[in-house]
Design the sequence.
């Protein structure tokens, strides 16, 4: 896990110096140099990761089987694997087929997608004048690093979607077209087409207060929205199908838990509420990032019983949460600012530690392997580790089935 600690520790250190606004010119100049080098560091760490997670097996299997782009375009009857309905969205299939034709190795697919994702990320921060870039990197990757290692298609779709944010309040057609392109890589990106109208909502203090109340008390009392709705439909219709749906949901569910994460996000909302006047100077894209956070609050409460759905959507909205961490420290006075920044950095590293306490997560993502440094012994270890993870996951769902039967 040393590689992960170096990754988060470096971002944490740079975050502290950048967020506190040291007056020494040499500190500022060095931070600017490091800031330019960070994308290359991210590309090395993320783009050259090697067989980390579990989904890489599925992606590599498709990469090995899919036909080259010339067969797909000019000999479609022979492109059986490409036109199979069992694998992935059409845009992603084209991308895989094209990269296979050009370079022929699966690792290049991971590297090229990662390079685009990092470019889109850095570009977004630059054109929106995000000041605490290191804090943004630190918080975002503390939420999504492991997820991005697995869900290659959804990550790519999200980073394509970032280009659409430029057209909020400018052109719905251009916004929707980019969302459709993103949706060709992962269909979940189509969710953002109707969310265009949510992003146009005025960011009022009342909306912030209502969201805080819903989020805080939703977690405090463990509100199960979907179960309540299903119970209501079952009572009205007398149909047992709703009870069966509820049992099925239990396979993917976990209880709403009120804890440190709830308190931290509620604190962020309070900082926004008490500094509402300062929000008026934000750009439209920056305000959309705050609306991302609000959307996260509602989605996490409503879908808290369905881990798969909640986790998939929250992956998108974590971008807004990371923005709030990087932005909120600037709203505070010097002494509270130092305390807040130190807490944010500790919180990010704590999230990583808490994740690694789970045996399945630890088996899945640790140790870190880099494409440039693996050997045959590492390959054998990776496959053994993958098989152990699949067994652990299978045992988990078997236990959930037994729990629901009881």
Sequence:
């Amino acid at each position: 896990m040393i590689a992960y600690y170096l990754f988060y520790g470096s971002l944490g250190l740079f975050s502290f110096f950048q967020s506190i606004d040291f007056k020494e010119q040499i500190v500022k100049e060095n931070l600017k140099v490091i800031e330019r080098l960070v994308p290359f560091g991210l590309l090395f760490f993320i783009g050259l990761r090697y067989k980390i997670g579990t989904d890489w097996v599925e992606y590599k299997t498709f990469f090995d089987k899919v036909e080259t782009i010339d067969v797909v375009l000019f000999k479609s009857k022979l492109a059986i694997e490409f036109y199979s309905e069992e694998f992935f969205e059409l845009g992603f299939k084209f991308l895989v087929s094209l990269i296979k034709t050009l370079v022929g190795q699966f690792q290049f697919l991971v590297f090229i997608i990662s390079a685009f994702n990092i470019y889109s990320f850095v570009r977004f921060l630059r054109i929106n004048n995000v000041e605490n870039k290191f804090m943004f990197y630190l918080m975002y990757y503390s939420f999504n690093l492991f997820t991005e290692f697995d869900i290659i298609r959804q990550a790519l779709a999200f980073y394509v979607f970032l280009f659409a944010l430029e057209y909020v309040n400018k052109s719905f057609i251009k916004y929707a077209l980019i969302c459709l392109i993103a949706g060709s890589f992962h269909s979940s990106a189509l969710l953002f087409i109707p969310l265009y109208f949510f992003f146009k909502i005025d960011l009022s203090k009342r909306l912030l207060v209502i969201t805080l109340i819903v989020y805080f008390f939703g977690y405090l009392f463990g509100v199960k929205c979907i179960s309540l709705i299903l119970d209501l439909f079952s009572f009205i219709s007398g149909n047992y199908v709703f009870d069966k749906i509820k049992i099925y949901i239990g396979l993917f569910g976990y209880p709403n838990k009120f804890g440190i994460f709830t308190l931290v996000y509620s604190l962020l909302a309070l900082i926004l509420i008490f500094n509402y006047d300062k929000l008026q100077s934000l750009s439209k894209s920056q305000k959309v990032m705050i609306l991302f956070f609000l959307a996260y609050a509602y989605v996490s409460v409503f879908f808290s019983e369905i881990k798969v759905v909640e986790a998939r959507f929250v992956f998108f909205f974590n971008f807004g949460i990371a923005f709030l961490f990087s932005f909120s420290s600037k709203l505070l006075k010097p002494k509270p600012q130092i305390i807040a920044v130190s807490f944010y950095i500790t919180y990010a590293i704590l999230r990583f530690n808490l994740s690694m306490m789970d045996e399945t997560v630890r088996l899945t993502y640790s140790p870190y392997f880099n494409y440039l440094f693996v050997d045959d012994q590492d390959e054998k270890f990776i496959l053994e580790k993958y098989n152990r993870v699949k067994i652990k996951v299978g045992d988990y769902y078997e236990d959930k089935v037994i729990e629901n039967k009881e």
Residues 1-222+257-374 form one domain. Residues 20 and 338 are 7 Å apart (CA to CA).
